[in-house]
Amino acid sequence: MIRFEDVSITYPGATNPVLHGVDLHVPEGELCLVVGRTGSGKTTLLRAVNGLVPHFTGGELTGRVTVAGRDTRTHPPRELADVVGVVGQDPRSQFVTDTVEEELAYGMESLGMPGDVMRRRVEEVLDLLGLAELRDRPLEQLSGGQRQRVAIGSVLTPDPRVLVLDEPTSALDPPAAEEILAALQRLVHDLGVTVLLSEHRLERVVQYADRVIYVPGTGGVVTGRPEVVLASTPVAPPVIELGRVASWSPLPMSVRDARRLAPLLRERLADRLPARTNGMRRAGADVVAVVDGASVQLGSLFALRDVDLAFHPGEIVAVMGRNGAGKSTLLRSLVGLHPLVTGSIEVSGSDPRGLSPKGLTRRVGLVPQEPADLLYAQTVGLECAAADADAEVDAGTCAALLARIAPELTPDLDPRDLSEGQRLGLVLAIVITADPPLLLLDEPTRGLDYRAKERLAEVLRLFAAQGTAVVMATHDVELVAEVASRTVVLADGEVVVDGPTAEVVVGSPIFAPQVAKVLAPQRWLTVSEVADALEVLP
Amino acid sequence: MVSAADLRGLPRALHPGAWWAWALGLATIATRSHNPLVLGLVLAVAGYVVTVRRSDAPWARSFSVFLKLGLVVLTIRFVAQVVFGNPVGGTVLFTLPEVSLPNWAAGVRLGGAVTLQSVAAAFYEGLRLATLLACIGAANALANPRRLLSSLPAALYEVGLAVVVALSFAPSLVASVHRIRSARRLRGRPDRGVRSLLSVAMPVIEDALERSLALAGAMDSRGYGRRAEVPTGTRRLTAALTLLGLLGIAFGVYGVLDAGADVAVAVSALVVGVLAAVAGIALGGRRAVRTRYRPDPWALPEIVTAASGAAAATLAITSAALDPVAMMPPTDPLMIPTLPLLATAGVILALLPAWATPPPPTMLRARPGAQSKRMPVTGEPESQTVEVSA
């Protein structure tokens, strides 16, 4: 269905090709997973499928890419629109119209499909993706998960034979992600659609994949069955890493596979206890921030309702909950971006809304969902210098922090050319330059690969050890298991659970990490805990 | 026995073109008359039809905005007349203290006598402008402006789409200004004042450009800009017709407006130009492969609505020709205005859409949470609520 023959792609101005000599064949009706580190060329590979590379981005493509027999050299993306549906990283950037139903119909209108067919397809896709109740909704009123479903629906309606998705679930909470993946699987199994998707959170998708394309970033690709390719790649979901630690063969791809292999391991672990390394609340420590009966109203919606929370130095708190539960609103209220309807918020003893910007950054730092918003200088070096000046600290403070967080970033790089993970590292360095006792992160792992996530976890642990209170809103259960000492679950703006991570996540069908699901009822959360207990190297 | 529902159909949105035709018809009356009775009648008719036929969509609330704008215009006109106006006629109502201006400002008067005649003239003119605004407001409230754009003929589709995309970009641009300003605060920089606003301009423009590029890529991948194969001859004919049409219209409009030109020649040039342009657009549409999803039908209610607007306009124009005094009651000497029969009949005809059109669809499900809250109130059985959520 999709065929790459000796394909090399070089972007204008680049000396080395992103992809080099790639030979690839994805047969019809397969769900094919593209894995690799950020910046390795996954997106380039995906965008080459419908000719956006190089027709739209420029650059040079040698070799041949064919989809359903059509050569992308002679067919620009619009001539492939009826066979390939493409969903980009940010669903908002692909919306053309303003309501759900019109957006679903747009692609079909461009292709000139007859009215009765359009009508039928729209209804089918509305049901397929559970959008029926949202059909008249303006797109800007949708939550992130709903938006992603609409974006997928909008390319599904013309009934393409190939679906290309670039990290479709990265913005979604676990249940919404499951829903999307279940829908994709249904498309593959019932309708024979060929799906090519990239994803960093392999634990969500690897069990559905028929084939894995590993893009190591050196130009070539490795293709094969998931258990074969993932046995040796540096990117692997926890369940596979657990399999490696426990020397299982073949490697399990899903929690179900692993649980079948796990009784023996559970026996070995029965008399041991996990050594929790996560930052813990120190006895007698003061409070960094207090949220006291706070409610926030956004439009007609109460995004926070009577929330009571306190954050202490040295703890890492995960704020979880479905999309729209009020996680971001909580973080934004802590930096005074939302007026409170009731209650009060105090950060280091002052109301964040009453603080001057400089006073604010010394008390609390927020890394927003789009870290790039905080960047505006031309180079990394200038960005760091500006951060030093803003925080009124010694020149070089920010650069020194950056060297610890992301040593590969040289001062002459343009922030816009960085990968998501590098950009997050830069923004993190800028935010902590003012040394705030409270650090907030909104969805920090969006777009991060396992390596970048590990590094983030290390950095966060380091801050916590120095006495910073870290609060992060996230959907990433594996990161939560890895670093968070305390987990707060929000629903409809109210605090549902607030307790130690191990207690909150182990019993939960949604928030439990894979290791916990495999080894329940024992309370192991991460592979490294298990590896330590077994005294093997992960 | 034919019921009203049979004639006007089930609840649905009327074709936006029909509402605009109707509203422009009403507006024509206001251009032909400053008789306050006629204008008041027009306002009442527009207001009534808007009240019974607007949906609960966001744009439907715009009518009151236009009414308020009209009131402001009326007030400004009135105050300007009282303060600066030259007194016409002899019935002095009251006299304001007159400010004597220096010689170079001769001809400008400030204060002085205010006459009934000049106040009446100002009132007539102000009311006329307010009525025009109300007619436009009625069209805005009744018809989704975006749907009107997307009902453009296929050849003009791309122009319409550009406007639609620009319209949806505006709110997101505002959102990105907010986002970037709050990000400035997070970096410890002032987020108020002119300088901070200026310094967010670059990132916002960058953001907008990046988004446009992403959108262009996405639209291309979704088939935007596909072209059907059209013979070269047809393409050339399209270009020739469009050019001829533009020239004809330009020449014709100039001729009609220029008093010295031969009216017959000008009108025929205009007619030929319009015909050629229409043919060009129709032919140009052949290159577009696009179809419309759920196009608004043009059925009996649309015909009735547009025709009632046209009839109102025609009757007003006829009335103005036959009975200019009634349509334009003189203010000096001031006469008690009377209702011109023909124009009044026209305005009342324009009330027809209030009954002859299908009611607008209720947008219950368009509002988050509205469904579950309203269900028990409207007496829907509980089981249905369960079905909806299941």
Could you please describe the fold and organization of this structure?
The complex is a heterodimer of chains A (538) and B (390). Chain A has 538 residues and is of the alpha/beta class. Chain A is 36% helix and 21% strand. In chain A, the strands form four sheets. Chain A has a six-stranded mixed β-sheet, with helices on both faces. In chain A, α4 (100-111) runs parallel beside α6. Chain A starts with a strand and ends with a helix. The model of chain A has no long low-confidence stretch (mean pLDDT 87). Chain B is mostly helical and 390 residues long. Chain B has a two-stranded antiparallel sheet with strand order 1-2. The longest helix of chain B is centred in the middle third of the chain and has 30 residues, at 157-186. The radius of gyration of chain B is 27 Å and the shape is globular. Chain B starts with a helix and ends with a helix. The chains are: A alpha/beta (538), B mainly alpha (390). The interface between A and B is large, with 71 and 50 residues.
Quick recap of the structure?
Chain A is α/β, with parallel strands linked by helices and 538 residues long. Chain A has 22 helices and 19 strands. In chain A, 36% of the residues lie in helices and 21% in strands.
Primary descriptors:
heterodimer; A: 538 residues; alpha/beta; six-stranded mixed beta sheet; 22 helices; 19 strands; 36% helix; globular; B: 390 residues; mainly alpha; two-stranded antiparallel sheet; 17 helices; 66% helix; disordered C terminus
